[in-house]
From TrEMBL, chains A, B:
Pfam families: HTH_20. The keyword Transmembrane helix applies. The keyword Transmembrane helix applies. This is Helix-turn-helix transcriptional regulator. Residues 1-93 form the HTH arsR-type domain. PANTHER family: TRANSCRIPTIONAL REGULATORY PROTEIN. InterPro entries: ArsR-like_HTH, HTH_ArsR_DNA-bd_dom, WH-like_DNA-bd_sf, WH_DNA-bd_sf. It comes from the Bacteria. The chain crosses the membrane at residues 20-41. Keywords: Membrane, Transmembrane, Transmembrane helix. SMART domains: HTH_ARSR.
DNA sequence: TCTTTACGCAACTTTTTAGTTGCATATTAA
DNA sequence: TTAATATGCAACTAAAAAGTTGCGTAAAGA
């Protein structure tokens, strides 16, 4: 229903999910759902939903171990986001060109 | 209400807005609202709303000229997105470390 | 075995987002 | 001056997202 890049952007567009992802990236070990939830004010179920979205985007992976589900970050999918951005990077420092073009348009009209 | 980075991520999380942004980046001149709208199936007002969100995020700027509002892309704010990503880039190629840590966790438990 | 812990699932509410229609207004062209 | 064009604004609908409560269940510990 949604393409990967959209899933990725939507996943990281939410501040809570960026926080969860960050916590997992800097964690020295995988963290259980409960351990993650304890770092946030919202309920465990709320956090679980966010983790599911991160998981669907490929940014978080999980390993079941008994009654625990340990989560760990996988930043690799961000490569695709980076690739998307690199195309626009070439316009970062000359984005006033478009303003020039605008002025040209005006002159031509 | 929303921080800049969240505004940016939300702006580019929508496929239509990425399309609008892209069209403006590759355009050889600034485009009016109507010119942009004509490239999409949705109504002009729908497109206008997307442009407003892009404008709030700083990705699109506008110049009024008579009854026209010419829009042009400004990719510079994407630098901040890039900065956000660069932190995680260091983990791209060793993201299995977290899996190792997970296994270590398991062993310790 | 009994209790606690860690979770999933489903139903629900609230808020946000995406998109529409309708109408008013200013600018441009005939 | 009259008609067409480019736009904004407001109200509305529909759908998606964010978050909650409640409950059931399997695993671990006492």
């Amino acid at each position: 229903m949604q393409d990967n890049i959209t899933k990725l952007f939507k996943a990281i567009a939410d501040p809570t999910r960026r926080d969860i992802f960050h916590a997992l990236v800097i964690a020295t070990s995988a963290l259980s759902i409960t351990q993650i939830s304890n770092q946030f004010l919202m309920t465990r179920q709320g956090v679980t939903k966010h983790i599911k979205i991160l998981n669907d985007a490929g940014l978080v992976q999980m390993k079941e171990d008994g009654r625990n589900r340990f989560c760990f970050a996988d930043p690799k999918p961000l490569k695709e986001v980076n690739k998307w951005m690199q195309f626009y990077a070439q316009f970062w420092d000359d984005s006033l060109d478009n303003l020039d073009n605008y002025l040209k348009t005006k002159k031509d009209a």
